Amino acid sequence: MENSEFKAYVVDNVDGNFVGKIKNKKLEDLPEGDLLVKVSFSSLNYKDALSSIGNKGVTKTFPHTPGIDAVGTVVESENSQFKRGDKVIVTSYDLGMNTDGGFAEYIKVPSQWALRLPDDLSMKESMIYGTAGLTAGMSVLRLTELVKPNAGNIIVSGSTGGVGALSVAILSKLGYSVTAITGKESEKDYLLNLGAKEIMPRKEFEDLAKKPLLKTLYAGGIDTVGGVILENIIKSVKPMGAVTCCGNAASPNLEITVFPFILRGVTLIGIDSQNYPMSYREQVWNGLAKDLKPNMLHEMCNEVSLEGVQEKIDLILQGKLKGRTVINLQNKF
To answer: 132-270 adopts what CATH topology?
Structure first.
């Protein structure tokens, strides 16, 4: 049995204010589950930041440890599929939402949430991806089923965020020409380095004419924000193109006619990384370990210790965090 005490970033409701601190916890404090994992790395996602400020749509009960992503080593397993010493990835499902998550040195989860770390992927690389990378991988693979590199430009929204940036980099790796939508003029060089061929200012794209159909400019799109941006992507896609959508930070509403779907045959593909079947997750993770892996994956992240989490949470809530943040829990930082 491992040392029963460990460190975790814990958010608590203090007189109506949600405060995050590093605390000592014990293994017996962890929730039920047949897999105990010693966490090596986690990563920061917008959903973690929402949990840290008490968003009831993410986390209902406090105190709570966020962290919807984790990778580590199996310490105890009640499932014969996993044994002590196996390296596993756990992302999404309920981890970090209402089940204590990866911002801790240990997690305990149902074994059905875990998959083995692919041979060609390091623990750190898996968390540079995290749920954002899984979502980007799902989006790219679904898009490539219908749209090939020679069909034309692919437009990507939210391109400096985790899903958007990784989508730009992966599409570029696969030979697609990418247009990146961003509201951050200062990040143009960053997006070009990821592989974007063209930068589209967000305001300019939002202000396109309020028409049922727009000029066809793109073979397909990956949208991460929803709202007007998604509407204009759909209306700008060429006949038989496809668009994936995975977020609604701008708006969950879609005010659009059926014309793009009927007159142009556009396909809209929803991406739900939280509850996708394990067989499909394994396919995506194996792709991320090999053919989909961007050449500059390590340049897309910054690494912090558990003590650096709060600063990064503040930045992501202000919309000032670029790329991916990996949290090192190995005590080797």
So the answer is: Rossmann fold (3.40.50)
